Amino acid sequence: MAEASSIRPQSSANIEQWHFEADVVVAGYGIAGVSASIEAARAGADVLVLERTSGWGGAAALAGGFIYLGGGTPLQQALGFEDSPANMKSFMMAALGPGADEEKITDYCEGSVEHYNWLVDNGVPFKESFYGQPGWETPFDDGLMYSGGENSAPFNTIATPAPRGHVPQMSGKRTGEKGGGFMLMKPLIETAESLGVRAEYDMRVQRLVVDGERVVGIIAKQYGKEVAVRARTGVVLATGSFAYNEAMIQSYAPRLIGRPGAAIEEHDGKSIQMAQALGADLAHMDATEVAFFGDPQLMIRGILVNGRGQRYVNEDTYPGRIGQETLLRNENQAYLIIDEASYEEGCAADSSTPFFRFQPKWVAETVEELESDMGLPEGTLQSTVEVYNRHAARGEDPVLGKKKEWVKPIGSPVAALDLRNFTAGFTLGGLRTSINSEVMHVSGEPIPGLFAAGRCTAGVCAGGYASGTSLGDGSFYGRRAGVSAAKG
């Protein structure tokens, strides 16, 4: 009960002293927070950011850096790819559901080109270079690649394929340490600072302050001392997901129990709980993205089978979709079946994730022998490979629709990589917000003075995912939050 009561809102009438004050107070200095800060400052507001850690960046600065943009961005056009807001919407509605927010996705697609230009105008660099190989991200400094399975089944039959993974140009990237996300955040932070945005670090937000029904501030702890922060026109919550809140994972997304969070430990869901204490509505709290620890350059050259020896996903699709199919619908059971020639070819290819290239656990001269060694039911893997090879001899995959260029019969010797339990995830659900980033009460009305963006909200993803949608809608709706909060 002590923890529950500490999250409940506090009346401003009980505040004896405001330790900090600004027009707009932003909780979190990741991609949503910095975008909100820039737009609020440009709208004439005095802006103060409260950041839990000792520096800016959040999960965004450690990310690969994809920003999901399309509809005909200058980078798409320069590289010869045609796209439109309607085409982009068709893909996103199919890939990010079920239950995707059509109003929000329509809004996002229609504003995508302008958002790309906003990023460029604020110093984010994009190289006019396309990376067309399978991968989690480009190992080089290319600016554009497919990042959501747009060019693979079933989505390539629903919308015209167009690459929308826009990556800030950066050399010397280190995945998970200093990726393209750093080169996204750095110029935006510099822009915010040039506009006079102030930041207070080591600030752990605790609860919201209200005057009647209106949010007018935040209670936080700085170096163990409780401080009150007044927001004259609005509060923006931008503190990330709940991937590292064990109790919330158990309640809302239990399939991630025991899976390492593909996020940062500061993603503890506190903003969600603080707003819930005011009656905020939630959406898609069970939705999760699932990272799969397999190298796409290997997976695409073999076939993935489950614990019954059956294929369950086209191997040339977005790796995050493979992860979701593996964990959520196949009990986290996955094996990669690949012959020696294809394995060696995949290991020789450029990759951003060479550390996902594992040694085979089983090797055999025949599929029958491999099946026995793996302990699979007799005949299951043999029939799977026989059907695959029969169609692959004609360059076809009528079962799951893998593209012709990657369809090749599995030869001998043949191996199996044990990829069971090789998944991690992060949450996609959160506060329900309007297209103006207002936090919505369960009544359907906005909560006055409270705005939110980023992974603490239910953004454009309702279940499915594409790399870049977190940084994309975090920055897009972060901007909206800043404008709305400045207006009050």
UniProtKB/TrEMBL annotation:
A Pfam family assignment: FAD_binding_2
Domain FAD-dependent oxidoreductase 2 FAD-binding: residue ranges: 23-468
Keyword Lipid metabolism appears in the UniProt entry: no
Cofactor dependency: FAD
Domain of life: Bacteria
GO MF, one example: oxidoreductase activity
Entry keywords, A to Z: FAD, Flavoprotein, Oxidoreductase
Xref: PANTHER family: 3-OXOSTEROID 1-DEHYDROGENASE, FUMARATE REDUCTASE
Name of this protein: FAD-dependent oxidoreductase
